[in-house]
Each structure stands twice: as C-alpha cells, then as structure tokens.
C-alpha cells in the first residue's frame, strides 16, 4: 500500500493548522521541504514552522533537506520530532557518515537526488539508508511538471533493491498527482509526495484518496 506525504510547501501558511489537520485525517506523512537558497535557488521555511507543525502533527514527519552541509542540522531536526530525514547526495561529502549520524539521532535516513543524477550513484549507499528520495522535478520549487523518465529510474532502483534483498523504501517527489500515482506505485514507489496536487485542489481529501 502506497503512502501519501503531502508537501507542506504548498500549504496555506495563514491557515496552517487547517492544512495540518487535513494531513492528520487523510494522509500518512508530513513532507517538509527545507531549502537554504544555496543548494537550491529558493528559500522555504525553517525551525519555527517545523515546530509549529510538529505541535499538531498526528502523523510522522519526513523532512527533505535541500541544503548544503546537512550534517550540521541533523541533531536539531531530531529534536523537533522528525521521524524521517533525507539529505541530497549532491550535497554530502561523506554520505555514509551523514546516514550514520541520522540513525544515531533515532531517525530513518534517506538519500535524495535530482533527476540528472544517475540512479546507479546511490547503489553504493543502499545498505546504509532506509529510503531513497527520487526527485521527479529539479529540487527547489513546488508546482513543477513531472519528469517522465522517473518511471524508469524507479524501476531500476526497485530491481536493485529487490536483487539485494534490502528493505529500502522508494519515495518519489515532484509533480506527483492522481494522473501518475498509480503508474509510480506500479514502478515500485512506496511513498508519494504531493504538494500542489493536494493543497491546490478544491478538495484535498479527495485528491489524497484519488492518489491512493
Ligand atoms: C521540490 C520539493 C517538493 C515539492 C513538491 O523541491 O522537494 O516536495 O514541494 O511539490 P509539487 O507536488 O507541487 O511538485
Ligand atoms: Zn520534497
């Protein structure tokens, strides 16, 4: 069964509690996009917003770090109650030690990577992480168009995970909607992140249900 993780980047920040309740009632995880304006050309939100969401979240929180030097903030995210933490392969000098640090702080560890990173580049780290976050748009902004080559990338990863008998989940992030959700699940995705498809929909609960 695929899990649905609404991205709070597309939430209504003037009515954040309302959108938090939508996730609590209808979805599986909170996806929190952390952008530093350096690793990606955009700045999202930081600890005050994460803490506000945490205070009302009844579902696990999944933070996606699009920042340089992610290792500097691992402990701090653990303290906010984050359950799953991912950092970009392109932003880590020593991925194994970052994954180890995330684990030592009691969180599930994930490796994220952009559409121009060959999937084979994460193969050496599959044993050290709990999930991989396959970007289906270039990290940095919500509301972008889904990149179709993602299906093949997910299939390749899934085959490698199964071949090695690992329990590594595949999360897909960017341009996900009811239009491509079924095909992504069929390709091997376990977690689907969706921002605009959920929060810009006239009925967010129905959008989540349609993706399932
Ligand atoms: C993009 C973020 C995504 C984004 C998804 O850098 O990682 O999580 O918020 O938004 P949509 O679903 O609108 O593409
Ligand atoms: Zn994300």
What do these coordinates show?
By secondary structure, the protein is an alpha/beta fold. The chain has a single domain (3-211), classed as Alpha-Beta Barrel (TIM Barrel). The chain contains eight helices and eight strands, in the order βαβαβαβαββαβαβαα. An eight-stranded parallel β-sheet has the order 1-8-7-6-5-4-3-2. Strand 6, helix 5 and strand 7 (169-173) form a beta-alpha-beta unit. Helix 1 packs parallel to helix 8 (204-211). The longest helix is centred in the C-terminal third of the chain and has 14 residues, at 150-163. The radius of gyration is 16 Å and the shape is globular. The mean pLDDT is 98. The structure holds D-xylitol-5-phosphate and zinc ion (ZN).
Q: Biggest sheet: strands side by side, in what order?
A: 1-8-7-6-5-4-3-2
Distance between the termini: 8 Å
Bin the helical content: 25-40%
User: What count of helical segments does DSSP give?
Assistant: 8
Within CATH, the superfamily carries the name Aldolase class I
Question: How many β strands by DSSP?
Answer: 8
Question: Could you name the ranges where pLDDT drops below 50 across 5 or more consecutive residues?
Answer: none
Query: Can you summarize the main beta sheet?
Result: 8 strands, parallel
């Amino acid at each position: 069964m695929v899990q649905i993780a609404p991205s709070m980047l597309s939430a209504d920040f003037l009515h954040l509690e309302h959108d938090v309740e939508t996730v609590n009632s209808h979805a599986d995880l909170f996806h929190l996009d952390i952008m530093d304006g350096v690793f990606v050309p955009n700045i999202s939100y930081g600890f005050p917003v994460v803490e506000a969401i945490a205070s009302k979240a009844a579902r696990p929180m999944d933070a996606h770090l699009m920042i340089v030097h992610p290792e500097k903030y691992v402990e701090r995210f653990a303290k906010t109650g984050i359950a799953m933490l991912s950092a970009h392969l392109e932003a880590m000098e020593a991925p194994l030690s970052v994954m180890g640090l995330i684990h030592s702080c009691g969180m599930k560890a994930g490796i994220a990577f952009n559409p121009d990173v060959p999937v084979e580049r994460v193969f050496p780290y599959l044993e050290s992480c709990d999930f991989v976050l396959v970007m289906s748009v270039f990290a940095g902004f919500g509301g972008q168009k889904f990149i179709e080559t993602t299906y093949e990338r997910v299939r390749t990863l899934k085959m490698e995970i199964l071949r090695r008998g690992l329990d590594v989940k595949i999360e897909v992030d960017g341009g996900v909607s009811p239009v491509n959700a079924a095909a992504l699940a069929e390709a091997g995705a376990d977690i689907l992140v969706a921002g605009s498809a959920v929060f810009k929909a006239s009925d967010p609960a129905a959008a989540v249900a349609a993706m399932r």
